[in-house]
Write a structure and sequence with these properties.
Elements lengths: L4 H13 L5 H7 L2 H10 L2 H13 L3 H10 L3 H4 L5 H23 L27 H26 L16 H9 L4 H34 L3 E7 L8 E8 L2 E2 L8 H20 L3 H21 L9 H26 L14 H8 L7 H16 L5 H11 L6 H6 L1
Antiparallel strand pairs: 1-2, 2-3
Helix pairs in contact: 1-4, 1-5, 5-7, 7-8, 7-12, 8-10, 8-12, 9-10, 10-11, 10-12, 10-13, 12-13
Length: 411
């Protein structure tokens, strides 16, 4: 009781060294007085620091399982309850186990291109197997996802959601409040975790809306957006020039009218909106969405009390599991083939100043200008490799009220 933080340290060491906690220590840790002392005597910074070290350990699943077993979930995570902890542990375990499987059989989208292979504009970046920071954030999001879903369901069930005025301070979401206020984690961690949670939901929605069908079509049609580095002026970074192909032929993105290409570009636009928000953490978000589906299969398996190993039920469950993994591999591989990885770093062809000065000089400030810039971003997503001249023509046709007076009269 003099140092209740020892309970969390014992959990951390058990997870790091993969030891089993002594029965006497377990019983002492379950004492309600220990939980009270932990909540009242120990600073939240120290609690949050121990949790972070647990999730960095070789066995984050074991650490969270111990917290659940010791009835410490609501003490460590005040925004959560035991049920949230159970569901979070199940999802964390599924994500951790599947990532371990990927070490021996990495999916195509997590493999680095082989020397001499065709370079698609999308194979850059560390994989989850290499990126310790992204893995740590993935463990956070997996464990906190049930709380995120619970709050989301509550908000959707409210008939009239509360709208804050501009003068009111924006309230933190329960997940961000838990991370920032209760665990005293850095704001950048909380922002990244919330981005992964949002993007994971968006990817799940895109998959449910036919994402795997679109991905399969892209792969079967051999659609490929390749990149080459172009030389720039001294002191400037090299730029990416995109070259789209379909069925082995070069495509002019401004004039191609093949329905397959048009569908692929609609899919590219939908994916780009997600990737531009999530950035390099896209693999963690996709892995979270995949793990949620796999976790659903595992939950159904656990509910079959009389299933016998090797019977038809178990076989069909394994087939469903392989099917889920395969469809996410198709989805992610198609995003790589479309040259989307790294789209969050792509600069606009025209900056705001150029648009105001020579393209749409009569554009007003405010929402209209924002609409124009968003239209540029969307057009670039659906026209990979197209140049600024084609973009200028598109913007003038889309926003005729904002072109120069003499051009408007001529038209």
């Amino acid at each position: 009781l003099d140092d209740p933080l020892r309970v969390l340290r014992s959990v951390r060491f058990a997870a790091r060294l993969r030891f089993t906690m002594d029965d006497d220590l377990t019983q002492a840790a379950k004492d309600v007085r220990v939980r009270t002392a932990l909540a009242q005597k120990v600073s939240r910074e120290r609690v949050g620091g121990e949790v972070d070290l647990m999730l960095r350990s070789p066995d984050p699943v074991g650490a969270m399982r111990l917290l659940l077993h010791l009835d410490l979930i609501e003490t460590v995570y005040p925004q959560m309850n035991y049920h949230h902890g159970e569901r979070g542990l199940a999802l964390l375990s599924t994500a951790h186990d599947h990532l371990a499987d990927c070490r021996w059989s990495p999916p195509i989208w997590c493999q680095h291109a082989k020397p001499g292979a065709t370079k698609s504009a999308g194979g850059r970046g560390l994989t989850l197997l290499e990126d310790e920071e992204s893995r740590r954030l993935l463990w956070y999001t997996s464990f906190l996802k049930p709380l995120w879903d619970f709050v989301k369901e509550q908000q959707e069930s409210e008939s009239a959601p509360i709208r804050q005025s501009k003068k009111q301070k924006r309230q933190l979401s329960p997940v961000k409040r838990l991370l920032v206020d209760d665990l005293k984690r850095p704001a950048r961690d909380a922002d990244a975790i919330e981005k992964i949670l949002k993007a994971g939901d968006e990817i799940s929605d895109l998959m449910a809306g036919g994402g795997v069908v679109s991905g399969t079509m892209i792969l079967l049609s051999d659609i490929d957006v390749r990149q080459e580095e172009t030389d720039c002026a001294a002191g400037e970074d090299s730029a990416r020039q995109l070259y789209p192909f379909m069925s082995g032929r070069r495509v002019d993105a401004t004039s191609e009218d093949d329905p397959v290409w048009s569908h692929a570009m609609d899919f590219r636009l939908a994916c780009s909106k997600i990737l531009q928000r999530i950035g390099p953490l896209w693999r963690a978000a996709l892995f979270l969405a995949l793990s949620e589906e796999l976790c659903t299969i595992q939950t159904q398996e656990d509910g079959l009390e009389y299933a016998i190993e090797g019977d038809v039920v178990n076989e069909s469950q394994e087939e469903r599991r392989r099917g889920i993994i395969e469809k996410y591999d198709i989805f992610a591989s198609s995003m790589v083939r479309l040259g989307l990885i790294g789209c969050w770093d792509v600069k606009p062809l025209l900056d705001g100043g150029a648009i105001k000065k020579s393209v749409l000089p009569r554009i007003p400030k405010g929402p209209a200008f924002r609409d124009v810039m968003e239209e540029q971003t969307d057009w670039m997503a659906t026209h990979p490799g197209a140049d600024a001249d084609a973009l200028v023509l598109h913007l003038k046709r889309t926003f005729p009220d904002f072109v120069a007076q003499d051009e408007a009269i001529a038209k």
